[in-house]
Records
---
Amino acid sequence: MSRQDAISLAYLAAIVSFVLALRFLSSPTTARLGNWLGAGGMAVAIAATLAQRGLDHHVSILVVMLVSAPVGAFAARSVKMTAMPQMVALFNGVGGGAAALIGLAEFHDQAPEPGRIAFNVGLSTVLSALIGSISFAGSLVAFAKLQELVSGRPITYPGQKLGNGLLIAAAAGVGIAILAGPQEDGLLIGVIAGAALFGVLFVLPIGGADMPVVISLLNALTGLAAAATGFVLHNNVLIVSGALVGASGTLLTLLMGRAMNRSIGNVLFGAFGQVAAGPAAAAAAGTDGQAVRSAGPEDVAIMLAYAKRVVIVPGYGMAVAQAQHAVRELADQLEHGGVDVRYAIHPVAGRMPGHMNVLLAEANVPYPQLHELEEINPEFPRTDVALVIGANDVTNPAARTSPASPIYGMPILDVDRAATIVVLKRGMSPGFAGIDNELYLDPKTVMLFGDAKDSVTRLVAAVKAL
Amino acid sequence: MTSGRLIVELTVLVLAIFVGFEVISKVPTLLHTPLMSGTNAIHGIVLVGAIVVAGLPDQATWIRIVALAAVALGTMNVVGGFVVTDRMLEMFKKRAAAPPAREAPSSSRQER
């Protein structure tokens, strides 16, 4: 067996380990093992690559790896669970950036003089540069939005869609020009720069609540960019891994779109929630005329402690306030007193797919208590208290009842069917979709105003005092 | 460059996409965040490509710098991705307490 064969077999082993890693993610009991398996496969693939014949400059490569590995590990170790969406966006962008740079370097290497690159290699080079660059820049903007370095609100201006369309068309046009003839580094750098600018402008108008879709999509793009570099370098492990990631990201994107009952196009180009950015709308929302019932923590504690069944509905507000540990404590107190406590998780609650599940897992909530929308909705009519913590649009009954509402048709958690609804909220402002929530005016609803963590902590104390 | 190689590579790509859809559709929503972060780590495989390009002999300096930058990004992607995923998965626990709420929901989640 030649060395090249051995390397190819090592790549095959890596491919198998990646597929198994994803397979093991189908259950929380095997998932962790799967992740290590994937990491092992990655180590094998990297070692095999370093052993490749004809590879030069091992020292500088190894030094760069040894310096950057601790950076990645440190970032991954030190990041707070509440900052996880940003972290995922950042690592995603880093991978896309690497793919774009590989495209550029390989292009230069293969095109000693114009007109020498085979069409298919040229195409995959241009694609890896283009897609990788969009993913890199888009992910960084998503990171900035999630980290609140940039406003989470959609940022719009006149001619935005047209401008973005022209920009990406121009970048693609230069890419085609490269394929057709003048194979110069400068042109590919132009493609990369244009694509990066497009990535920025494309994510800017997308609102915070739509981030789960955007992050999934960027994840898919990075996968595709990696697959494209596989075509450039004729490397199967890159092609397969990129395809797996591309499939995963695409599937999640579609699932998120379905969970909001909106087409992906609407999410990406609709600048959803920009109505609410209008100054008057937000200020006046919900407060005029009708009475909102508000209560103190002691009253709510009594409702909770004497309930048979309580369903907790967490939302982004819980994440922002980092209230998950307090919530768990409250649930423990209630369970101690014999109350049946469950959690209802909406698929798009939070800023990335599965966001609430991770936060509650961090607070040691056993995952069998976390219920998906389809499971928990039939339970609400038998629920005494639905405790909504920092969730808004995903509980808005207008999605069921009012065809005029922008979120009409979106599957929601039917909290309004519970006997009593308690809403923990900072104030009466509308959610990210910028729509009033008639739930708050429901006679069965009680509002407990304040920061989610403070409110829950006060509830814990009040329940203890009973 | 023969077109035969391209066809083989395309075949691999398409089959891998099918495998991806098949495997990933079995991941419960509970684990969607670790799925994202796990696939993030997997696309760190671009590091392999970065190493190949950075290791080509006789290159212009600026190209080597570009390629080594790709190695750095790829390494951070791989290491950070797997570590973050492990941190998340470590947290998902099935507590022994709370017996009634335990078995029923988890079995219904497996059904699909």
---
Amino acid sequence: MDKTVLLIEDEPNIIEAISFILMRDGWRVATHSNGVDAVGAVATRRPDLVILDVMLPGRSGYDILRDLRAAEETAELPVLMLTARGQTRDREMAEQLGASRFMAKPFSNAEMLEAVNDLVRS
Amino acid sequence: MASLNLLIFVSLIYVAFLFAVAFGAERAALRGQGSWLRSPLVYTLSLSIYCTAWTFYGAVGYAARSGMEYLTIYLGPSLVMIGWFWAVRKMVRIGRSQNITSIADLISSRYGKSTLLGVLVTVLAVVGTTPYIALQLQSVTLAVAAFSQADVTMRPLGDQNSTALWVAAGLAFFTVLFGTRNLDANERHHGVVMAVAVEAVVKLFALVAVGVFVVWGIGGGVGATLERIDASPLGTWSVAPDRWLALTALSAAALLCLPRMFQVMVVENEEERHLRTASWAFPLYLMAMSLFVVPIAVVGLDLMPAGENPDLFVLSLPLAEGRSGLALLSFLGGFSSATSMVIVASIALSTMVSNHIVMPIWLSRQAGGAMVSGDVRSVVLLSRRLSIVGVLLLGYFYYRVSGGSTALAAIGLISFSGVAQFLPALLGGIFWRGANRIGALAGLLIGGGVWLWCLFLPSFGPGVILSAETMADGPFGVGWLRPYALFGIAGLDPLVHGVFWSLLLNTTALVGLSLFTFPTPMERLQGAQFVNVFDHTAGARGWSGGMAQSEDLMIMAQRILGAAEAQEMFRRAALAQGLEGYLPEPTADFLQMLERDLAGSVGAATAHAMIGQITGGANISVEDLMAVADETAQIMEHSSQLEAKSAELARTARQLRAANEKLTLLSVQKDAFLSQISHELRTPMTSIRAFSEILRESGDLDVTTRTKYSGIIHEEAERLTRLLDDLLDLSVLENAQVRLTLAEVRLRAILDRAVAATGASGRLRLVRRGAEEMVLNTDMDRLSQVFINLISNAQKYCDAESPELTISAREMDGLLIVDFVDNGTGIAPDSQALIFEKFSRIGHQQAGGAGLGLAICREIMARLGGSITYLPGQQGAGFRVTLPMHGAMAAQ
């Protein structure tokens, strides 16, 4: 498979968990943990998939998603949004901005694997 | 025989006694005990600094030289106190309502807070008072010399100058010690006033004792003494009516205008009703002082060898009769007269010099104005201390230059006529709304100039400053400018001539120019305030609010008034506006009150300038606004009721606005609350779920990884527990279900525990000071929870290079106050109202707390009957924990 995923998340323990799950599944995992220069990190690393947390230090995940969709190169890039606030308003907001998929914390590991594999397959 | 050593010994004991009196009075006032300090008797006695060494020694000399004329010196003030009581009362009322610090301040403040007028009055006062101070030094030196002549065992003192220098230095020390202890004019100099009152008693007693000795001891009783008086040239009533009138008017004016009289009469006045007592008691005192002057003079002229200085009869008569004890007492009386005058005069002058000359210069040299760093308070105190020393040095040098030759009374009269130049501006200012700044300036300049030319400069004697030719023919031969015959009118007594012309031209300039020029709006408003002081003691309107930053004002006020006083004043003002915390809205009323308070410390003009710099309104914009307001000023004066109502409305509106703002913010927060709780709970749960699934599903993990992952699960579970604990704690506290375990604990123990619990080894340096030995009756666990929170907040959020947290405890008004102030950047004003709400975190979750800490602290303090507030205007973030002291006891 050998695909690359860029994980943008600020909680160290959650980074460790997701990295472990995905690497065991054969993914190459890159991580980035602040909002300010996240868009730049996507541009330099050119991943096949981005996992993006909503509440990041410095800049909101929504703003980052808006920028990614606005740029030509990343307009079609699969983005999986993660949020710890499981309210419908957050989900609507994510869909409106063009998130490929939305997932509330906490999630099951199987759920996570299924979501990322779906996103790169389609 | 009285020995010089004994004299010096007794003087030193007496001085030590005065120090003790002043010190005791200060202590008593500080403890709030000295109600006897504030009695009308002490006030009246302090007024008696009018009677200086000139009166003590000089009056006798005066009577010996010029007969009954000496009585004018007592007559003038008595007439003012009795007949012009209402004018004096008006001056005192104005002084109190406007926080006036000196006569220069009064005149400057009345004429639109003019700096120039303040400087002019100050300079004239210093020039006019310096000879008078020299006179006091001279009297002490002469008295010591008289003793040393009588003391056959001693060589005559070679150097009288050294005596004068020692006396001047001692007085400077005393005055600096008790005269510059505190800054605000409201906090009066209890120690000095008490010492002056004691000296007043001593000098009266001494003079009466000498009088009794002369009449009954030497003169042979009342009848014999009266015969002796009839036989002497003094008995023939020869008084020049013009001199009599001029001198009475002059001494009356002096009572109102002398800086030292203004100091004791207006500035140190404790209650207005004291004036009522003084209006009859002070004339009585003066009468008692003048009672024995003529007998002493007549007997002295009879008994003493011709050529003996009549100024010293009070001392030399008992010495010649071998009554050394009485002579010692008489010396102490003269010493008291001289020292009390010098002390009060130098306090008054130093206040003027510091407020009207030094501070304006210092302020204008500070580019940033009042906002520069550094403590203005210490600058003011230093400048006052230096001014005191300067004034005394000036007096000493005048004494050296003038050679101490002129008769005492002559110097005194020249001083009187100098300060009498303030009279037109003073009376015009408090009785005539039309008087304006240009008129006052011109009057003072012309009057002061004429006085300098006709009285002051000639007083050094012909050939010293003015040459004999100038005296005889006028400068450069211009005849109508002769100092003793202005405009060619010769033949008048020089003193009458000088007083007549200087006051006539002074008054004419004031009235004429006031009629033909227009006052600025500021002058008009101040004029109305002063002239109609009894109608409304409300204060000048002058500031338009909204522009000023309350926090900046607070920083400035703390520097001038001191931190605790300023905070208390701001808190009260905020409370009066219906706001909580320490920052009132900068309304016109508040700014005006602040200005008046500051004026008590640094003078009206300076306070006005300082607030002007901060409110951003340069004088121009304020005056522009006031020009508009001026039209309506008249109507406003009559509609104060309407104003009160609109003030009430504005207050309510402000309260509503504040409440509304808070509600809006709170509703936004309520929305955020659920999603916050959700976030705080779900984040640790995510890790727990993910790692527990990993552990369950993959049996092939090595031991290290396994241990690590279960460690994470444990850690996150703890985080969850902590959050739930906090939430629970808060909800219990909010619903008042909490049970307090009250016990008596020492504050130090609680703080020690909090410091230990936060792991004091961190980067944060702790500074602890203050009354930590206080014993409290409180819930130790809960209180230390609050302290722990504040300390760990400083550990987390203080962003200084080397973070430092100062914990200071003290007691104020029955409250225990513990301040936690760090040296970071503090909290922005718009966030200060929110930090005590739940889940409010400044910045973005950088430090990992859930944002419940301060909310919990607030609830705990409310349960303990105290409060926790943000303390603005500190160097960094400041929190104030307040607990009522009832139930708390001072350490035994």
---
Amino acid sequence: MENSTIKEKIVKDMLPTDAAAIREEKIIQDLLPQRFGKWGYIWVGILVAICLVGMFAYYRQLRYGLAVTSMRDYASWGIYISNFVFFVAISLVGSLITAVFRLAGVHWSTPLTRIAEVIAVAAIIFASIIIIVDMGSPERFYFLVIYGRVQSPIIWDVIVITTYFFISILLLYYPLLPDIKILLRYKENAGKRLYKFYGFIGSFWKGTHKQYLLSKKAINVLCITIIPVAFSIHTVTSWLFATTYRPGWDSTNFGAYFIAGAFLVGAGAVVVAMYVFRKADHLEKYITEDHFEKMGRILVLLALLYLYFNVNEFLTPYFKMKESERAYLNGLFTGDFAPVFWFAILVGMIFPIIILLFKKGRKPLPVFIVGIMVVVGAWFKRYLIVTPTLLHPFLPMHDVPANYHHYFPSWEEWAITMGSLAGVCLVITVLTRIFPIIPIQETLNEQHETAK
Amino acid sequence: MKPLNKICIGLLSIILIFPYFEAFSQAAEKGDLNVAVSYFITNNKVPYLQVKVNTKVKGKFINVGDIPVKLFLDKDSTGTFIGNVTTNEKGEASAYIPTSVKAEWATSIKHTFLATFDGNKKYGPAKGDLTVARAKILIDAGSDKTVTASVFELKDTTWTPVKGVEVILAVRRMDSDLPINETPTFTTDSTGKASGDFKRDSIPGDSKGNITLVAKIVDNDQYGNLLIEKTMPWGAKFVPVNNFNERSLFATRNKAPVWILIIAYSIAISVWSVLIMLVFNLLRIRKLGREV
């Protein structure tokens, strides 16, 4: 009690600049990366364990070939490709939160930019890995580069993913430089090895005016560049399907449909991460209810947009019910895939829209739950885009073993897929342990501007 | 019990049990097979036989495969055995007439071919036969683009022209034969000849314009199936258009369309130029930091 009175007196007696310095110090202390607590270690332990099981399953796949999977002649793309499309989709969030909002002058999104960038980097890393897993033997990727045809959308995808990955890394790195300068000031917080690492990647940042201008220009260029590249990555991924003449994929709408879906799942992932980091690192002052309110509004808009594209994708073929697409559409609406299809539509779009339309639904916890629903629904939606089509070819299946007519992933596929999902979470966790999850310098700058 | 009663009961039991035993032991009714034999001779070379086996199920003829059939010339004996054949899924099987029956073949101007099936668990025994007279067909193509077929029958030891035989004059195409003009069939005159004008001038031939003319007798009751071919340069020269090595979306990597190369490389170069510039920008920031 006595201490607090003394503190108040000190604050009253201080000059304005001293008060600002204390506020700054408080912000820095709040936003410095936190060491793992007990739950942090448990969380990392669980993720590492899942990754190890996935690696063992991948070892089995390398040793015995793709025969360990349930993919056969017809369902030649299974949950690996669904997962790939999911990761590619989720990575779009980097361009939405960082680039679009920054260029549009939206300042409230500042605390969310690093979260979005980290998710984008982690997702695009594992999108690249999972596509190599799907190839069976990894050396096939080398052959793809050596013998690939520039006419093939697969090569376009390889080029555009590499480009997007590089841009995402730069977009994460450039805004980090001022924060690294701050991190270097707090050696005792970092620990010896981490301090050395900070020094290696950012000791040259002195915060001079020239450096600041160069950095600002670079970030602006990156924000402009990443938007068309992000649109390309999703459009090209959709063309992997749309340029193949099959029921369900023969659509001119696929590019826009994929981009809409990617924005939705990316935003969903960000609200989940926002809630988790807010709780785990006690960031209630920085990631406020207002952020959830605004992200909730964005989510409902994106969910409505994606629902609109889904109506377009399914209603017109359903109306025509072409003979060649009948089995595929019936399979989705009322057949084997109906439970997953309606789950993805209801849980991934309709319920989130209903919840988020209400003000109470845009509070942190409901938004977090909706985020989870969107992400889970989106994963199943990707599965529905890939596999049912392959099981309903235009030419009927003849003279094939009975199990070729169905697809259910083997344990190796599940393990590798879960391993990759855990891998994404692990990369995000490690990055947030190393770097501040909310940009410190930008928060300080905004604080200054508000004070003025 | 008196012995007579025992005998009566025993006999009664046998009488009562026997019909049931019969009912159980009765074999399933076997199906009937139809065996048809056809005779073919192409370009007056070695003749061959084709056997077709089918059965009638619910009013429909269904081809029966996997039926072993023995073929004989004139009579069912070892010396006239042509061969064993087994029908395929279309119910068909064929066999050339072997040299082992050459002596028998030379003895007569008419021959009967016998096809026998001994029966199996599913079908009862079946037989088929076909009698044909030995005949040959010739083809001639005149410079005025007239096609003439001549049909001869062996009488005693000489080949005699046959009048009134229907002949098809046609051009060989990929899947079937195209008549040389609008007339579907021609009939031989007293000299055994049938002629028709070739009116398919624009028809594509091979690279030299060669086409194959055919004269054939189809399913004739007396002579079977006779066919003869002749190659003539009456077709249009076919110059194949091969776009395999042209640039296209579906060609190999070094045959990509120029427009796609320009677009793809322009995009890649411009984006990566920006990224490389940003990396250099980073190096500039680094240099500025060192200078401070």
